[in-house]
Amino acid sequence: MAKPRTAPAPALELLVHGVGGVTPQQMLDDPRTTLVTGDATAGIHRRTDDVDAEERPGDHGDRPVPEAYCWSGLTSGNGARALWLVLLPFMIANLAYWMRPAAPRRHRAQAVYSVLARLLALSLTVLLTAAACELALDLVAWQCAGSPGCADNTSWLSFLAADSGGWWSAPGRRLVVAALLPVAVTGLLWWLSHRTWSAYESASPPPRALGAAPPEPGEERPPLSLPGFWYGRRLVSRLRAAHTAAGLLTVTAALQYATLHHDTRADVPGGLVATGGVLGLLCAVLWALVVLVVVHRGRTENEADEHRDPAATKVLPSAAAALLLATAVHTAWDRPGWESAGAMPGTGAFGTLAVAQGALVAALALTALVLHRRAPAGHRSAMGGLGGAAVALIACALGGVLSGGINQRVSEWLAPGSSAGASSLITGPPVVLTWQAAVIPGLIAAVVVFALVSAFRTWRTCRRLTPGVIDGYPHETAELRSRSRRIAGTVARAGLTDSAPVLLGSVALLTLVLGAGAVLGAQLSERPPGEAAGAAPSPLPALLGLAQGVGSWVMGALVILLVTMGRRAYRDAGARRTVGVLWDVGTFWPRSAHPFAPPCYAERAVPDLSWRIATWTELTGGRLVVSGHSQGSVLAAAAVWQLDPATRRRVALLTYGSPLERLYGRWFPTCFGPAALRALSRETECWRNLWRLTDPIGGPVKVDSEEHGPVDRGPLRDPLHYGRTLRNPLPAPICGHSDYQADPAFEEERALLLAALGRAATASPDAAGASVSADPDCAPAAEEGAALGKVPGQGVPDQGVPGQGSAGRSSA
Fold this sequence. Notes:
Rossmann fold
């Protein structure tokens, strides 16, 4: 008697898109889609006809059911979210935290690096609040309201004007009113961080045994596989309390210093002096507590940390607010004879803050060098391990530019010429800000020179590669010079991505030198650059004055540019793709250094994916291919890392256009270095990666061993056809980073992955637990092309053009 036929196990392809805000309809190539699970922000979608596909496993034959995870709502929204771009320095500082070299996690220098990164992030909060204090307290309340000529030109300041004789005209009371602005800024940052903390950092990992096979000798578990990696709720809460208190204490210190400067030089009652001393002592104690909270404890990744922080941490912002209120009362107390003249006392703190940030960056660089020396062999770190320090320096410089730009533009608005020290109405912003403005044209000139050099190198590479393009298409002999040049130019431009470390290192070094010169010049001269060089030969003051003027306008324009770009990025798909790479890389990482940075979308996306993979495989017992493009491949890899071994045996990974090694492995070697990628390949049932030489973002993952076989297939041919043929009468497009699914290699590799999962499901438990990557049927269907040369930055032999060669696939 024949045995009854059993239905085949269902197969699912879980698609994860990259940057750009792709819709479910575009991902599934069907106008009729249905939300299966999730919400409008991030959810799983299927074609409407496939909603109940598991009940009809035979309807799709050998093809998997497509399912799309759309996460674009996590990084896009209405135009108001463009304001996040103003907080770009916070995001960059958070990036520096994750750019440490891949030394062992237990090395002492790792803890030192984390502490330095968090202290540097704290200094940026102080800088932002100090910039708000400079604008409101110094420029508006102290200088403009205290100058009759300036106050007469701004009617909205009439109730604060010193010559009005009103109750609010006293300097202390004017400062108290103006302090509402920096307090409001701090409160807004706290509210944004708290709101996003509830929506992002609170997504719990799947409740499964997240164990894994032991690492190879000499290797550690990859950080992204640890249960608590994507659950940073406690750390962000603690840092939010500390940074909120720091912002309030910065305002408090500004008020206390101004009153102390007057009280120690005037005949005031002794009770006021004593009260000021007590308030100053309390301020110093709270500052010590803030620093202690920041440096005391970092991330807890070995488990999902649900512990509560001590009550002292939670009440820290309330204590800082109470002290600020008491200081405001003390500042507003009647002090006859107190007048505001010149700049507000305490504005020299900007120079001190710049020096402190420089010292922190230098210490971060030394610590990174120590870690780089202890990194395992074969790791490739950007800038020899100094990438994090360079990025931290850029964050500080950008914070200074934004702070100076806003203050200089407000100063010019209140009294034209004040930013250059040429106004008789007000003194203007601190001198150090004008010196910082004067060095900006030098940085711009350096970037322009780098762009010209890169353009020349691209042109030269294009010329070198052009003659060999036609060799990659052995069945097409009609050579078109313009077509070859276009393909070779695309390859040459794609290689520019790998020049980013040179650009960043050059800008960071020049920023350090020019920034140090600006601080030194401001301390020695105490005058704007043009006036300081007045005694020199005539061209020098004119050049410095021109540089200061240009830099001042650039500083102000940068703020407007960031907001404008942000609004366009969230409204226009083309603009979003332009800034999407930096934005989505920056917000991929948990907020481990700065709690006011834009929220980490991966702390919602990765648990979403891991929950879906774990529950679907458990409910159906089917095979699942996680198919990730570009940034989606990073999310897919992070989700697979979070699975337990039993689930991994039913899951395969297909990545294409992936920056896993080319960008993440180079800039974030601790999490995506060679050891981590080897562990991912070893523990995943099967993994394939498709890449092209024309792709400026994706590249090979370079995981290849005798035991597990190669992961990469490529370079793929791009374009698929060189000229016009009988089957393709119109020119094929050069796809670059897009349309990987249109390449026949995509379906071939997906079919091989599903076949490998089917064999693993029917094997013995021991066999199923082992990786099948070395299985010939799971190996790449065919390798593309023969080596013709070396494309800059790829680091592997290539054809000079993507996937061209005499050994092309017969199906192409």
